What we know:
Distance between the termini: 61 Å
Number of helices: 21
Shape: elongated
Oligomer: single chain
Number of strands: 15
Bound molecules: iron/sulfur cluster
Strand content: 15-25%
Structural class: alpha/beta
Strand order of the largest sheet: 8-9-10-11-12-13-14-15
Largest sheet: 8 strands, parallel, barrel
Amino acid sequence: MIVTEKKPFDEILRSLEGEEKIFIVGCGxxxxxxxxxxxxxxxxxxxxxxxxxxxxVGTFVSEGPCHVLRTARELRTVSEExxxxxxxxxxxxxxxxQTIADLVDKPVHPGLNSLFLANVKRYGWFEERCSLCGxxxxxxxxxICPVTRCAKSLVNGPCGGAEExxxxxxxxxxxxxxxxxxxxxxxxxxxRLLKYQVMKDFERSIKPGVLDLxxxxxxxxxxRIGNADQARASWHPEFEFGHRNWExxxxxxxxxxxxxxxxxxxxxxxxVTCELVPPKGVDVNQALQDARSVKDYVTAVNVNENPSxxxxxxxxxxxHLLVEGGIExxxxxxxxxxxRLALQSELLGAxxxxxxxxxxxxxxxxxxxxxxxxxxxxxxxxxxxLRLAIELMGGKDYNMNNLNGAPQFYLGGVIxxxxxxxxxxxxxxxxxxxxxxxxxxxxxxxxxxxxxxxLDQVKDVKAYIIAGIIPLKSARMARHMNANIPxxxxxxxLIERMEKARDKGVEGVAIARDLVRGCRDLCQGVxxxxxxxxxxxxxxxxxxxxx
Length: 547
Ligand code: SF4
Ligand code: SF4
C-alpha cells in the first residue's frame, strides 16, 4: 500500500484561498488504512472547512482513486454536487489525486503527502520494504532489501557506521546489513555476500513508469529483459567482475611508482598521511598554512570531502592548491552526492588538475550533517566507485566508450577495524581490494591488540593498511567520540589517563606517540587526524617516523 500523511491544515486552507464551495474526495483503500483519507478523515475535514467558512458541497470516498476507470464510474454518481464545487480537495495519494485531476475539470488540491510503498506490520504500523528499483537483489541478501532499508542503499556491504546493530543515522532503526548478516549466517549462506553487485541500471526505472501489457505479455517481457541482460554482459566487463578476465585487467591498468605515497608503500617505507579539512567558505589561507606546517613530516595530505556531511569547500579544489604548493594530496571522493556521470567527470578533472591519489568512499549520511534535507544520491557504493575508476584508467567510461586520454590513479579505500559488523566489513574490504583499492585507511584506532587481531584476519588481502589516529585532547573529547562517532571506541584506560593528566596536551601527544610506535610493527603507515593540532604533528612523530 501507499502510505500518506496529512498536510498541515493551514497549508490546505491557503491552497483553497478564493474558492468557497469545496467537494472532498477520499480513498477507501490505502488512505483509509493510513488513517488519512477514509470516511472518518473526510468527515473531519468537512467539519473543519465549514468552521473556516467554506461550504462543503459534497463528499465522496472512492474505492481506490488510483484505479482510473472505476473512479470515473464512481464520480458519475456524485456529478451534481461536483458541478456545484469551485474546487476539489482530495485525501488520497499522489496517484489518486492525479486521477481526480484528470477526470474533473476543476482545480484539484492535494490534502495529503505521499510517503512510501509499505508493508502493513500491524494496523497503523507501516514499514517501507521496497523502493521499486527495477532490479531485485533479494536473492543475494537473504530476502532483505538493502536498496530500501539501508539509509545509503548500499548493495555490496555495510558502511562503517553501524553501532550495536543500529544504523549510523541515529534514528534507532536497525542496520539492515546486521539483519542480512544474521539471516545469511543462520542459513550458512554468507558466501553470497562475496558476489559483487553491479551498478544498477536506472534506465529500467525511468520516470514515469509505464507498463502496457496490451502488446506484450509478462512472459514475453521477461524473455526480452533476459536477452537484453545477456547482450549487455557480452560487451560490458562489469558483468565479468570477479572472473579471471577482470583480475588480469586490474593488473594491466594498475600504475607503478605513480605517487610518492605509492613509492613509499611499495618500497616498504612506513608512511604518514595527515588529514586536512577544507574551510567552510573560500578563505583557504589557514588550510594551506596547516598543510605547509606538516609538509616535511608526512608523505601526503588527505583532503576530506564534506566531512560528517557538513558542507565545505570541495576536496578537489584544495587538492589542486596543494599540488600547486608542492604538497602531494590524497583526494577523498564520496558517492553520497554525485551520480556516476558526475563521479566520472570529477575523476577526470582530478587527474587533469594533477591529483593522483584517490580514496573512494560512500561518505557519512546526509542526515548527520548541516544539510539534512538534501536529496541523497548514492547511485554507486564505494566498491562500485573503485571499479569505475579502474574502468576510466583502462581508457573507457562506464559504458565502454573510449576516452580521449586515460587518467591514472593510485586508489585506496576505507575500513573500520572496530566495527560491530567486522566480518561484513572484511568481506567488503576484499571486494574493494579486488575492485582496485591498493591501500586502506582505517577509522581511528585506539586499541592496538584489537587492531592486531583485525590485521591477522585480513593478512591475505593484497593491500596496504594505514592506521587512522586522532590524538586525544581531553577525556571529554574521548567520551564524546565514543558516544557520537560511529566505529570509534576509546578504551576506558586511555580515558582515565587523560582524566588524570595534569597537562592534557602532553598526555594526548604521548598516547598518539604510543599508537604510532605500535603501528610501526603492525601495519604500513599511520593517518593522522589532528583536528587543529597541526603544530603537534612533529612531536607525535619525533624519533619514531621520519619521511
Ligand atoms: S531490491 Fe529492494 S527495492 Fe529493488 S525491487 Fe527488490 S525489494 Fe524492491
Ligand atoms: S549503518 Fe550504514 S550500512 Fe547500516 S543501514 Fe545505516 S547506512 Fe546502511
